[in-house]
Design a protein that fits this description.
Distance between the termini: 59 Å
Strand content: 5-15%
Order of helices and strands: EHEHEHEHHEHEEHEEEHEEHEHH
Strand order of the largest sheet: 3-2-1-4-5-6-11
Shape: globular
Number of strands: 13
Number of domains: 2
CATH superfamily of the largest domain: NAD(P)-binding Rossmann-like Domain
CATH architecture of the largest domain: 3-Layer(aba) Sandwich
Helix content: 25-40%
Largest sheet: 7 strands, parallel
Bound molecules: NADP nicotinamide-adenine-dinucleotide phosphate, guanosine-5'-diphosphate-alpha-D-mannose
Length: 351
C-alpha cells in the first residue's frame, strides 16, 4: 500500500495562546507538528498540557533573536507550512523593551523569509499581523486597505514584519501571507492582557480570594473574538490558490468597561462595588478604538466568527472559576494564575 506522507508544519510561539490552539487544530487535521520554543529557567508548556497535546509535538529549541536557530529549525522540520506566531506580543511591555521588541517581533520575520528563499521557496509562510497596525485615530471599520498608524513599539515592529512579508511575496514569489487578526481571547490568554486579567480577578473575587479589580483605561474599545476560531483562519489562508492578506475580526466592538460588567454578571455581582482605576495601568499612547471588517475573509476563505461577545466572556470567567475551585480543593493541574506575581509587586514603567 502507498504510504501517505503527513503534511509537516513548524509553529513558532508554540507555548503561547495561539500556538497551542493552532497546534491542536493541525494535529487534528493529521499534520506532523514541530514547535519552536525558547529555553526558559522554568519550562512553560502549561497550555500544551492543558489541551492534552504536549506529548504529540516535536519541540525544537529556537530563539527569535538567533538567526542560526531559525535556520536550523527549518532545516530539521522541513515544513510544508510555517506559522510564525512567536513575538514579544504585549503592547505595554513594548514600551519597556522597545529594542528587543523590534528584533523579536519585527526583524525575526526576515530570517524566516530569507531561509525559505535559500532552502526551499515552496514553503508557505504565515505572518501573525495585527489590528495594532492601524493604531489610534481610526474610529471606523478597518479593512485590509485601511491606513496604518502604529502607536507603540510593538506595532512599529509588526509594521516592519507585515511589509517584509509582502516584499518577499512580490519579489521572490514566496507564498507568504499576513493575517491581520483583531484581538482574540480565551482561557489560555496570558494574564497580563486585560480580558484574562478580568476573568481571573472576577473568579477570585467571587471565591473570596481577592477584594478588587484595578484597571487602567475602561473606555478603550476592542473587537474581541474567540481564539480557537481565529487559528482556523490562519490555516485557511495557507490553503488558498494565491497568497493574500486578510482581516480576521467580528465586526463588533466593546469597551473594557462592558467586558468588566459582563464578567461580573456571570457571577451575579455588581461590578461597581469592586472595580477601581489607577493611572499606572494606562498606556502612554493608547489605541482607543478598534473594529474590523471580516467580509473579505468571509467571501474568500468562507470564514466567519461564531462565538458572540457575551459567550466569550462567559467561557473565560467560567473556566477561571472552575480552575480556582479545583485548586482550592487541592487538585493540581497545568494552570498559570497561582504562579503569577501580584501586580502590586511589579514596577510598572509604562503599561
Ligand atoms: P502569546 O501568548 O504572547 O505568545 C507569544 C509566543 O512567542 C510565546 O510562545 C513566546 O514564548 C514566544 N516568544 C516570545 N519571544 C520569543 C523569543 N525571543 N524566541 C522564541 N519565542 C518567543 O501571543 P498570542 O496571543 O498567542 O499571539 C500569537 C501571535 O499573534 C503574536 O505574534 C501576536 O503578536 C499576534 N497577534 C495576537 C493577537 C491576539 O489578540 N492574541 C492579535 C493579533 C496578532 P514564551 O512562552 O517562552 O514567552
Ligand atoms: N493589559 C491591560 N491591563 N490593558 C488594560 C488595562 C489593564 O489593567 N486596563 C485597561 N486596559 C486597556 C488597554 O489600555 C487597551 O486599550 C485594552 O485594555 C486592551 O489591552 P490588552 O488586553 O493588553 O491588549 P491590546 O489590545 O493592547 O493588544 C492585544 O491585541 C493586539 C491586537 O489588536 C495583544 O494580543 C497584541 O499582541 C495584539 O496584536
Amino acid at each position: 500500500m502507498k504510504k501517505i506522507n503527513k503534511k509537516k508544519t513548524l509553529i513558532t510561539g508554540i507555548t503561547g495562546q495561539d500556538g497551542a490552539y493552532l497546534a491542536k487544530f493541525l494535529l487534528d487535521k493529521g499534520y506532523e507538528v514541530y514547535g519552536g520554543y525558547r529555553r526558559l529557567s522554568t519550562p512553560n508548556f502549561w497550555r500544551l498540557q492543558y489541551l492534552g497535546i504536549f506529548e504529540k509535538i516535536k519541540l525544537i529549541p529556537m530563539d527569535l533573536i538567533d538567526i542560526n536557530s531559525i535556520y536550523e529549525a527549518i532545516k530539521i522540520s522541513q515544513p510544508d507550512e510555517i506559522y510564525h506566531l512567536g513575538a514579544q506580543s504585549f503592547v505595554g511591555a513594548s514600551f519597556d523593551v522597545p529594542q528587543a521588541t523590534a528584533e523579536i517581533t519585527g526583524l525575526a520575520t526576515t530570517a524566516f523569509l530569507e531561509t525559505i528563499r535559500h532552502i526551499n521557496s515552496k514553503i508557505k509562510f504565515y505572518q501573525a499581523s495585527t489590528s495594532e497596525l492601524y493604531g489610534d485615530g481610526a474610529y471606523s471599520m478597518l479593512r485590509e486597505n485601511s491606513p496604518f498608524r502604529p502607536s507603540s513599539p510593538y506595532a512599529v515592529a509588526k509594521l516592519y514584519a507585515y511589509w517584509i512579508t509582502r516584499v518577499y511575496r512580490e519579489a521572490y514569489g514566496i507564498f507568504a501571507v499576513n493575517g491581520i487578526l483583531f484581538n482574540h481571547e480565551s482561557p489560555l490568554r496570558g494574564l497580563e492582557f486585560v480580558t484574562r486579567k478580568i476573568s481571573n480577578a472576577v473568579a477570585k473575587i467571587y471565591l473570596g480570594l481577592e477584594k478588587e479589580l484595578v484597571l487602567g483605561n475602561l473606555d478603550a474599545k476592542r473587537d474581541w473574538g474567540y481564539a480557537p476560531e481565529y487559528v482556523e483562519s490562519m490555516w485557511l489562508m495557507l490553503q488558498q490558490p494565491e497568497p493574500d492578506d486578510f482581516v480576521i475580526a467580528t465586526n463588533e466592538t466593546h469597551s473594557v468597561k462592558e467586558f468588566v460588567k459582563e464578567a461580573f454578571k456571570c457571577v451575579s455581582l455588581n461590578f461597581q462595588k469592586y472595580i477601581k482605576t489607577n493611572p499606572r495601568f494606562k498606556r502612554k499612547f493608547e489605541v482607543n478604538f478598534l473594529l474590523g471588517d471580516y467580509s473579505k475573509a468571509k467571501k474568500r476563505l468562507n470564514w466567519e466568527p461564531k462565538t458572540k461577545f457575551s459567550d466569550l466572556v462567559k467561557i473565560m470567567v467560567n473556566e477561571d472559576l472552575n480552575r480556582w475551585k479545583k485548586w482550592q480543593d487541592g487538585e493540581r493541574f497545568a494552570f498559570d494564575a497561582p504562579f503569577y506575581p501580584s501586580e502590586k509587586n511589579i514596577i510598572n514603567r509604562s503599561l
